[in-house]
Amino acid sequence: MISRRRLLQSLAVFGAAPVFAEPPRAKKTLVVVFLRGGVDGLAMAPPMGDRDYAALRTTTRVKGLRLDDTFGLHPAMAALLPLYASKQLAVVHATGLPVSPRSHFEAQDFLESGTPGRRAAEGWLNRAGRDLPKSAFSMVAVQNTLPVSLAGDSSALAFPSLRDFRVLGGDAAATTFEALYESAVDEALRTSGHEAFDFLERAKHEGLADRPAQHGAQWPKTALARRLQDITRLIHADVGLSIAATEAGGFDTHLGQGAETGQLANRLKEVADALAAFAQDLGPRLADVTLLTMTEFGRTAKENGTRGTDHGTASASLVLGGGVAGGRVLTRWPGLAASALRDGRDLEPTTDLRAVMSECLDSVGIRTRDVFPDFAPVKLGLFG
């Protein structure tokens, strides 16, 4: 017999707040893609017009695809150029947090909590979702575990894919779980349980996992692409999705990073191709979607002795969507002169990532009050 405690541990996705049986259609959706490992923003959007760039990068210098007089885009990300040209994609450079440790775990916790310098009890996306209409699919993470950004009191759901969105153990296990929910004394828990099983059935009977790509989108066969395709399926299905999160790894490039080709180029191509398919699949619905990429920190300005880069501070983010005032690299560029580097080694962050996160929330109509304690964001003008 499965205990109620094991039930909660196994699903680990439901908050205490009740949800409603009929999901309201989300007017707009925010999608957050966490690129874990510390993306080298100086390779993703190389500052080719900065006179100090070439001297710092001997084997990792990237000759990018021109975006403006200073910046380019890594050639492996060429799939994003049409979105940049159509002003649906913006690059925000020299982004970071005011407290930015060079530990992956600490930096990721600070960023996902939205509270640099301390780990909060809940994530920034969970705080943002407090006032959302409640449904099992109002906030989801399409990845193996619920990320820190969605942890907290507001209801959120995590699953590795729509195809795997089920109670492990088959129909018998699902019946047992449903019986446990039925006997729960907590009305909120019982309501949440019924809502989840309603959507388990809907996902199964409507074949959400098998819905084909739309608008001629050609999805790559990569983990990130599969996850983003599931998110587009949920958006198309009008299940009430307001916030979605997913992730990709492989950006900790200490050794043999490469330049136009190599391990980092391969990871960046996976991201770009998946984002391009995401935009293509959504078609006109991209007008109601904002997608943000973020990473815990950047890499050192100067490459190391093993033709890689070490943990740094500032990096770059991509913002994609129909409402984005794109076709621009937004930055207060600090430069790469030795005197401008943080601790003599890192690109200085001049744009607080919380300002980017705040504007992305605003763009989909989610109130940002109390999402970032003790922070008053400066408007960046990311959206028209």
Could you characterize the architecture of this molecule?
With 384 residues, this protein is an alpha/beta fold. The protein has a single domain (4-363), classed as 3-Layer(aba) Sandwich (Alkaline Phosphatase, subunit A). It is built from eleven helices and eleven strands. It has helices at 4-11, 41-44, 53-56, 81-85, 104-113, 124-128, 170-183, 187-205, 223-236, 263-282, 353-363; strands at 29-35, 65-66, 72-73, 89-96, 139-142, 157-159, 243-248, 289-294, 315-321, 328-330, 351-352. Helix 7 runs antiparallel to helix 8 (187-205) and helix 9 runs parallel beside helix 10 (263-282). It starts with a helix and ends in a 21-residue tail after the last helix.
Mean pLDDT score, rounded?
87
The percentage helix is 25-40%
Largest sheet: 9 strands, mixed
Number of strands: 11
Give the amount of beta strand, in percent.
Answer: 5-15%
**Helix run count:** 11
For this entry, what is the oligomeric state of its chains?
A: single chain
- Quote the CATH topology: Alkaline Phosphatase, subunit A
Q: Give the N-to-C terminal Cα separation.
A: 55 Å
Descriptive terms for the model:
384 residues; alpha/beta; Alkaline Phosphatase, subunit A; 9-stranded mixed β-sheet; two-stranded antiparallel sheet; 11 helices; 11 strands; globular
